[in-house]
Amino acid sequence: MVALAVLTAILPPLLFSGQAFVTWIYRALTFLVVSCPCALVISVPLTFFGGIGGASRKGILIKGSNFMETLSKVRTIAFDKTGTITCGVFDVTAIHPDLIEERELLHLAAHVERYSTHPIAVSLKEAYEDENDGCSVEDIQEIAGKGVTAVVNGRTVSVGNSALMDSVGAQWHPCHKSGTIVHVAIDGKYAGHIVVSDKVKEDSAAAVTRQQKSIQKNTETGNLTEVKKSLEAIADATKTLQEGIDAVRDKIEAFDTKAYFAGGDFTKQLLESCAEKGVDVRGETGVYEMFPFKVRIIGDEEHDSEVWINRKKLPSFRPSYVAESIHADQVKLYNAKFNEQTFMSELADAYELACLKSNARIGSTQSLDKIYKFLAPTARARKDYDKQAYAFDLARLYEKGTDAWISKSGKRYYFGTSRDGKSGIRVLSSSGVESFINTLKM
After folding, report:
1. What are phi and psi of 77, to 5 degrees?
2. Averaged pLDDT score across all residues of the chain
């Protein structure tokens, strides 16, 4: 049957003039469907099943094949953003007290919402972890569409929306932030409000990107109606994304870096993280030796907060990250193979090459920084050999404490120390003795 269909599509246009291929291909397909209906009967349901299965993998449940056909005609979709564009998981993103401290405002709201299962109530309880603090919570009343009231330690606390505030006579005021505003009143007096926002799904930005591509395509084809619909969809999704961005930005701006450093919290957490990682720490007052690194912590109310490892300024202020970076570099250095005589011979060869390149006699003084440039290509089976590894090898050689180092050829070499730490290579012995060396001569 397939062969006859092919012949039907090809032969008539070739044998008879004025016969179009399109017409005979269509007749051949008709002949194929009539002669082989089983293939058609099987293929159509499979198409529907494939579509339903693909939708289910994306978390979309379609009741049946007839609804699949209906979906092909859909032009507009209306949906609730909670759990669709957003995750349906709420977080406390801002606390704005009027009469009391931030923590006290959150504390009262969490206690009033203690027995509620509403997602916003759950977010308040999660934000205030010290629920069992001995406070007395009595006479809890849920008011439909408004909120919850309770007596906390003898004070009547009302937590809910603006309608609840109006009912208890509290003079509330709106908030400039986006999200759900939870107002709090104590004995009828407005105490402040808490902002609770939903988390944006990770793929919401991807959805916006797809809409942008759709706009580009429809613009090229001139389908302005679809362009308008896509723009409206992007506007809604962008608003939700902006709320998430604003919430993160507010948290960053609210963080007082100077107080974090000046109060000693950063240093305390860094030392705790180093202890967990097994990093040996020596020193105090902001300057610590963590062999073979020097860590300097700068920060008070008058100066910018900075963290330096040797001469490198770190871009991160997370103590665990700093400790992890030091630990990782230590492991890398400690695990590198080191043979004193091999390194001394390579250093001697690099020294003589530096003398040759600078037209200096053998025996003259050469900068260790210049010698490193000729030593680095050897790398001794390492994938990389940075200056930190170079300084570490020098430290292991230098801490032997001898006046001269003898290469395999029997030549003696001497390190020159430097008073200027900026021009020398810093070496730190395992016992914590610091030196700066900047030259080598024979």
Report:
1. -125, 125
2. 75
